[in-house]
Design brief:
Distance between the termini: 99 Å
Helix content: 55-70%
Oligomer: single chain
Number of helices: 22
Number of strands: 2
Structural class: mainly alpha
Strand content: under 5%
């Protein structure tokens, strides 16, 4: 890959907020020792480069682990060489010589940046969350694991200004491409590396955020196929956590144009936990954004995907906890209308989850801010459930919620019931009138049926 030199500004290191990512310390590997450093002439400290460069050079050989012609002994030897390089980087005694940066980064690029295999059929089924058995594991992992370990240690322990010749924009794009790997172990390592680069290379942060946004938008509006959306959202969760208040306009646009549309794809359940965390971070920092977020989620509400409905109901319930109370009145009707349609759902899981929302004190408080508008919708949904729903458990939960609502405002509840009965009686009378008109039409048609019959003609031949 081409190498470009950037001239970034030297900015101070900042602590990231996703602390556990930086507390991770890869396990040490034990291999054959590399030549130890020695004092050279001229008063400088040099390494015996021949052995080190030989090990790095050997690691440039890439094994597929699927070719029967590959020698297992050579594969094991490469793994030992990689362990040796890791041991060298772990040594706290001497700093890494700058002449090793280029061959090390070249070796890392050769091993990591490779064409990924086409998606397997199991990756389509992987829309089911936490299904490790369906994951596809790359056979290259025994080597890739060590290469990622080498890259992490280089990023952590080498001055970022010295690595800018090697870790450039193209290098970052190549890392982002690898997030499409179906191996969850590789995606976890990529997440760790990418986040550390974001922390150390401060001048790249704007570019890295934009590059991740491009991946999200391509996923939402083009392919809806990507294995690493959850890991990228975890990185974003840490980034958002570090945003200052008030939020910049750029960050608000990211919420509205990228995060909210991510509720649309059918694979939402794979990354919903990370997405909900990112969205909640925005609302916690600026509660006034709650209205935008709630309306955005309602806009992308699924029609036939019951599992997504359950997830979104839970997300809305959590958002109500952080929404600015001044917005309760404007959001009460659209939120309660959606929850009412959900507890009228024929799917018992969706209906039960929607009814449980009424156990949330903040949700009830929000509904009470606009009782005149909310009660007619909710009471009508309750009565429909009690009459028509097939599930006994849903009916029982509906009875419990009904009792709670009656206690909140008995006169208003009775008024809503009377209006419902009045509408039903009016609709019944209209139905009777309509039926009578149709009966009159049919009777009149029967009396004049001979006009509708075709006339019979007899043809007489002239022969």
């Amino acid at each position: 890959m081409g190498i470009r030199r950037d001239s970034p500004k030297n900015s101070p290191r900042k602590k990231t907020t996703l602390k556990h990512l930086f507390d991770l310390d890869p396990k040490p590997y034990v291999g054959s020792p590399l030549p130890s450093p020695r004092r050279g002439g001229g008063g400088g400290t040099d390494y015996e480069h021949d052995g080190i460069l030989s090990a790095i050079s050997y690691c440039n050989s890439v094994f597929t682990f699927t070719d029967p012609q590959e020698s297992p002994s050579q594969q094991d030897l490469k793994r030992l060489k990689l362990m040796d390089v890791v041991s060298l980087l772990k040594s706290p005694k001497k700093p890494l010589h700058e002449q090793l940066f280029s061959p090390l980064m070249s070796m890392v690029s050769v091993n990591l940046f490779r064409p990924l295999p086409p998606p397997s059929k199991t990756s389509i089924v992987s829309a089911l969350p936490d299904d490790e058995e369906l994951s596809t594991f790359t056979p290259l992992w025994p080597h890739l694991q060590l290469v990622y370990d080498i890259l992490v240690r280089l990023v952590l322990h080498v001055d970022s200004k010295k690595l800018k010749d090697y870790i450039d924009h193209q290098f970052i794009r190549n890392l982002l491409y690898l997030f499409q790997s179906e191996d969850p172990r590789e995606r976890e390592s990529l997440k760790n590396v990418f986040h550390r680069i974001y922390s150390r290379f401060t001048s790249y942060r704007s570019f890295m955020r934009k590059a991740m946004n491009d991946v999200f938008l391509h996923y939402v509006f083009e392919t809806e196929k990507h294995c690493g959306i959850g890991e990228l959202l975890e990185i974003w969760g840490s980034i958002i956590n570090g945003f200052g208040v008030p939020l910049k306009e750029e960050h608000k646009l990211f919420l509205m144009r990228v995060l909210l549309p991510l509720h649309k794809p059918k694979g939402l359940q794979v990354y919903h936990r990370q997405l909900a965390y990112c969205v909640s971070q925005f609302v916690q920092k600026e509660p006034a954004l709650g209205g935008v977020v709630v309306r955005g989620i309602l806009r992308y509400w699924p029609i036939t995907n019951c599992h997504k409905e359950v997830l979104l109901i839970g997300e809305l319930e959590e958002l109500v906890e952080n929404i600015d109370p001044d917005q309760y009145r404007t959001l009460a009707l659209p939120l309660c209308s959606r929850i009412t349609r959900c507890f009228n759902s024929c799917n018992s899981q969706v209906a039960e989850r929607a009814l449980y929302v009424w156990n949330n004190e903040q949700f009830v408080k929000m509904a009470s801010e606009a009782m005149e508008e909310v009660f007619p919708v909710v009471v009508e949904g309750m009565e429909r459930n009690l009459k028509l729903h097939w599930s006994k458990s849903v009916k029982q939960l509906t009875e419990n919620v009904k009792a709670m609502l009656e206690e909140m405002d008995p006169p208003l509840y009775d008024k809503c019931l009377r209006e419902i009965h009045h509408r039903e009686s009016e609709a019944h009378r209209e139905q009777i009138k309509r039926q009578q008109k149709w009966d009159q039409i049919e009777t009149a048609a029967a009396k004049h049926s001979h006009f509708l019959q075709p006339t019979k003609t007899i043809c007489v031949s002239s022969h």
